Amino acid sequence: MLPSYFLLSLLAAFSSAFATPSLMGMKRLTSGNSIAVDNENQFLISPSGTFSSGFYRVGNNSYCFSIWFTNSFDKTVVWMANRDKPVNGEKSRLTLNFDSNLVLTDADDTVIWSTDTTSDGEIELRLLETGNLVVMNQSQHFIWQSFDFPTDTLLPTQRFLKTSTLISMRSRGTYLSGFYYFKFNDDNILNLIFNGPSLSSIYWPYTLVLAFVNGRNPYNSSRIAILDETGSFESSDGFQFNATDDGVGPKRRLTMDYDGVLRLYSLDESTGNWKITWLPGGRIDACMVHGLCGDYGICEYNPFPTCTCPPGFSRNDPSDWTKGCKPPFNFTCDSNYNSSSSKEFDFIPLPNTDYFGYDWGYAPGVPIEICKNICLTNCECAGFGYAMDGSAQCYPKTALRNGYRKPDTAVQMFMKVPESLGRSWLELKSSSELNCSDSELFLNTHVYGERGDRFRYMGLLIGLVVTVGASELIFIGFGWWFIFRKRVNEELVNMGYIVLAMGFKRFSYYEMKRATKNFKQEIGKGGFGTVYKGELEDGRIVAVKRLEGVLQGDAEFWAEVSIIGKINHKNLVKLWGFCADKHHKMLVYEYVENGSLDKHLFSNDSNEELSLGLEQRYEIAVGTAKGLSYLHEECLEWVLHCDIKPQNILLDEDLEAKVADFGMSKLFREINESGFSKVRGTRGYLAPEWMMNLKIDAKADVYSYGIVVLELISGKNASIFRWLGSEEEEECTDLVKWIMKRIEKGEVKKVVDPRLKVENEEQNKKMEILLKVAVECVREDRNSRPAMSQIVELLTSYEQSNFHGDIE
């Protein structure tokens, strides 16, 4: 879709159109002076400009005094004074007192942080070229230095001592102290440690191997390590490594990341991006990080690390996986537990799955039945792992934490459950897919017990009861008429179980007619059906989507809808319920006040309330990106949308974006003769791979999102775009090509919607970033398109980005 010379021209246009001003900042802060949070020109800069130090925004109106790499694309923070106690965005300040105490105060003059130092004579605060923030006297003696108090990052030449600890961020974009530590332990060995609210454990290096086998030496008392300027790291315990790009030159940082993995990064100063140049070896990867998925949680790769719960389990906290999963039963151990009570339990198998640690016994070379009995006869046993590679090794466990699942894992986990539940789960399939089609066009996921199969198999026990009852009635003469009725009842009982498990309501067709006043007020129409406004009995206003072309039976439809109902994010439209009444299939959504984006963006109405300014359009781009990022990478069921367009982006009363119609590809499946899904989506928004019968993945949604951003910038509708052009230009019906040609000719200003007011530096920066994001998203080569999470990071860090200048 995009010729390479267009992209090259665009890069050149960016270089010429967006000039970068010279760096500003102070070289030092002297006694009695302050840096104010509400003065963006007050910050320190190192002698050559590599580092900057000042107030760094960590929330809507909250700041931390920080040090960051000036020229990294995302202004990467390497140190924070008050990461766990942000200050207000007004009237807060950092003051260097005359007694050398460096003090950070909030808006009400409360002391949030200080160096607690004192000294006589003249002093000053400087940021050195190494990234070290220092309070020094006239003799250049350091009274205090940030290098002695690292947060999550170690810089070259910064000594790492026995008192030093790198503590991860809480999560991506959340700078609060997290649960992963890098430090020396009491045996003088450098470790990676999960230090959660309820437990603490070392997960690297492998603790069941002696330090000497890991190449470590505990017989030292110095406990010191250092990363030098060539990318070489050496520690007193014998641990050492080198960057893959070793040598003097690249700017580097060693960071304890929020996912529990320690990484060495090198800065590519031509792009401002970071590349990983070292990772811990041995048994360390994201799924081996303890605490990542919490109690009972299972980590697996699809293709990125993701957490799931075992069959029938539910998340303790939908927003925090570290809190793990909750079982649908309670085990109680008392003196009455004996061989008789042990018969009340069974096991469900979790193939290629193991839970690291918490082994209370080990039995090599025993049959699986003996291993099972060992666990059954001990009340404290929560399950057992069994090696399926022929070695017959048995690992009974007292706790199920730090679970991971990999295809090459020889261990199969057997989880202890009540016998009644165990029988209904023994045949549970271990994977299913949520995809844009029914053949090759999908984003692979393997999620235990969280999809339609879970509910079908969970209903087996209920189905068994119904079957027995039906058989008895058949025996006394009700005949084939009752067989038909029994099947209907069985299906309804199964559906009722789904409703209880999912927590959203099943509506009857009569209830839908009454709520919508016989489907009177139509508020939208699309490829999947018509949407009506309604009001439920409890007063809630809803949007009822009456689906057309759904071929599934009621049970299958309900099982598929249950997947959509579990997805919850503030930038996604919430599903409240559904109707599956014979051929009537409906979804009941929250009602979003301001309708779809297209009604605002493409409206010719002069009403100012309908118009969208640049600030609003930027936030719509951010909200949409966050919603898609959640669908692609974060939610329990990874989802491809397959039809991103303004009609499927709704705006609430605050004009915050909410993505609608996600998961529809699960309900509508049409396969053509070649075995591929028929093209889904809307003209003007389809990625090139749809037309070439290639596998469809998340990058197809990224392309469509890029088109929407181009529409936000230009105000033009991609699906009906037509440009007559001048005499020397041919007619153009492709919005992407038209915009690229304008940029190629240096006519960037013609791309921008004339209704937008781009009047100051901040607005210029936002427009530039929107343009950059759009261009990156609509690349013809999908491998060159960014992931939605990367887009979110770029859009939300615009204030610290390296873009400046005016649109010409």
From TrEMBL:
Membrane topology: Single-pass membrane protein
Domain Protein kinase: 517-803
Top EC class for this record: transferase
The protein's Enzyme Commission number: 2.7.11.1
Subcellular location: Membrane
Primary residence: membrane
Any one Gene Ontology cellular component term annotated for this protein: membrane
Signal sequence segment: 1-19
InterPro entries: Bulb-type_lectin_dom, Bulb-type_lectin_dom_sf, EGF, Kinase-like_dom_sf, Pan_app, Prot_kinase_dom, Protein_kinase_ATP_BS, S_locus_glycoprot_dom
Family annotation (Pfam families): B_lectin, Pkinase, S_locus_glycop
Domain of life of the source: Eukaryota
SUPFAM superfamilies (alphabetical): alpha-D-mannose-specific plant lectins, Protein kinase-like (PK-like)
Keywords: ATP-binding, Disulfide bond, EGF-like domain, Glycoprotein, Kinase, Membrane, Nucleotide-binding, Receptor, Serine/threonine-protein kinase, Signal, Transferase, Transmembrane, Transmembrane helix
Gene Ontology terms for molecular function: ATP binding; protein serine kinase activity; protein serine/threonine kinase activity
Parts of the chain that traverse the membrane: 457-483
Homology family: Belongs to the protein kinase superfamily. Ser/Thr protein kinase family.
PANTHER family with a match to the protein in the record: OS07G0415500 PROTEIN, RECEPTOR-LIKE SERINE_THREONINE-PROTEIN KINASE
Name of the molecule in the record: Receptor-like serine/threonine-protein kinase
Gene: LOC103486356
